[in-house]
Amino acid sequence: MLCMSCKLGNTYSLLVNDSSSNRRLVDKLCLSVHWKLIPICWVSWKPPDRGYIMMNTDGSFLQARGDAGVLGSMDRYNSNMFDQVIKECSAHHLEFQSLMRKIQEEGLDIQTTRNADHFGAVIHHLSLIHNKRCLMAYVYNRVEIIQSLRWKLGPVLPQEIQEKLNYSEEEFFKNHSAALESYMSELELDLTVDMVPPKDPYIHVRVLDDIGDVLLSDQSPNLACHSMHFLKRTDAEQFISQGLMEELTG
Amino acid sequence: MASGSEDGLGIPSKDYDSLIATTDVELLKRAWQNEKAAPEILQFQADLIRRSQEQIQLMEDTVEEYAENGTDPLTVSLYQMDLDRTQFLLRSYLRIRLQKIEKYMLHISKTELWNRLSKQEQKFAKRSTDHMEKHLKQSVLSRLPYGYQSILKQSISSEDDDMGTISSFCANHFFLMCYCLFLSFLIY
């Protein structure tokens, strides 16, 4: 614990960094202190270049470390943290069961007894439920990001993102993608193009990566690197979203 | 809808407005705006969508014909623009509905909102829900102790399906986060 003493008037008083552990200690020792406020740091943010996907994820999980929650790309699936939480849940469950057994052995009625064992069991039960909600929220948060990836990047994920998913998430992505495709084929409409309201039917594009010959709805151009073309907007959109082309504006 | 007096051309604008308002494009635009603005999914306009798809198909054939027999390219591109705009409306309408289904699938399958979906949307929702439940079970629920493995109930002793708030509307999201944070202070 970091603290400095300073003279305030005629009395000495402790100046303490404000944190949860310090607060607990001060309460325990029944001290009266002055709390040093945590400084707020303003940061600026530059939007990413065209072609990058930026995703939000909640930076805080289970333990509040006091760090800033940051806007960033999806993290690797944190199986270590996950396994630790599951172990904690099992421990809680064992304690809960042993307390329940203790109540039963003493011959008391489980539903109505309100002794120390009962309240201990309640705390274990509530901790378990709390952990369950956190885990579900973590997995569900990532599921939402994965669903939006299907709309933005199409049926095949780039390697950098695939490394961050665990096996179950990859399976989920494939299944979700298949469900979407089956819906679109029933309607005979591709819903992943035409994402912005159309201004011109044809746009100028410059090719960024070598794509080669492509058969489009009204032409079959050779999309060599750095070549410029006048393509139909709906045809160009899929290439633009993958970062293989860029639109020339102005 | 503005009811106006006669404009300079001598066409009563009230009639013109009401004439325009009944075209399928206008109805589609209205449906699209409603769907975009409403937080919950609205009734699927099956007839309107079917008619719009037929008309778009007809327009596409007409434009192709015009392009081939050398009609004035300005006319062709104007028709093409109109076609593109209508197609965008249709796609966006269906897309917004799909994204709402993706977001609230558990909630929709449990309430009367299910009846607002089209047949294909119901199929999609059912498949998506199955995949989601399978994924959640595999990652989390099967590893938790017995009695805490339900998707919808917090534990077998819960009376309500309160885990469903994870997939309900946004307000519940915020409530859930506050709930977790508060408990973490209690326990530590």
From TrEMBL, chain A:
Where would you say this protein principally sits, based on its record? nucleus
**Which Pfam families does the UniProt record give?**
PSF1_C, Sld5
Output the Gene Ontology cellular-component terms. GINS complex
Which keywords does this Swiss-Prot/TrEMBL entry list? DNA replication, Nucleus
Q: Does the keyword Ion transport apply?
A: no
Give the CDD domains listed for this entry: GINS_A_psf1, GINS_B_Psf1
Tell me where in this chain the DNA replication complex GINS protein PSF1 C-terminal domain is found.
199-249
What are the residue boundaries of the GINS subunit domain, all occurrences included?
118-187
Question: InterPro entries, from UniProt?
Answer: GINS_A, GINS_bundle-like_dom_sf, GINS_Psf1, PSF1_C
What is the annotated localization of this protein?
Nucleus
- Which GO BP terms apply? DNA strand elongation involved in mitotic DNA replication
* Family per similarity comment: Belongs to the GINS1/PSF1 family.
Q: What protein does this entry describe?
A: GINS subunit domain-containing protein
Which species is this UniProt entry from?
Answer: Tetracentron sinense
UniProtKB/TrEMBL annotation, chain B:
Assigned GO CC terms: GINS complex
* Keyword Membrane part of the UniProt annotation: yes
Gene3D superfamilies hit by this protein: 1.20.58.1030
Q: Keyword annotations for this protein? A: DNA replication, Membrane, Nucleus, Transmembrane, Transmembrane helix
| Residue ranges annotated for the GINS subunit domain, each copy included | 60-139
Report the subcellular localization. Answer: Nucleus
Q: What is its main location?
A: nucleus
Family annotation (CDD domains): GINS_A_Sld5 (cd11711)
The answer to whether UniProt assigns keyword Nucleus to this entry is yes
Which Gene Ontology BP annotations are present?
A: DNA-templated DNA replication; double-strand break repair via break-induced replication
Q: Which residues cross the membrane?
A: 166-187
PANTHER family from the UniProt entry: DNA REPLICATION COMPLEX GINS PROTEIN SLD5, SLD5 PROTEIN
| Protein's name according to its UniProt entry | GINS subunit domain-containing protein
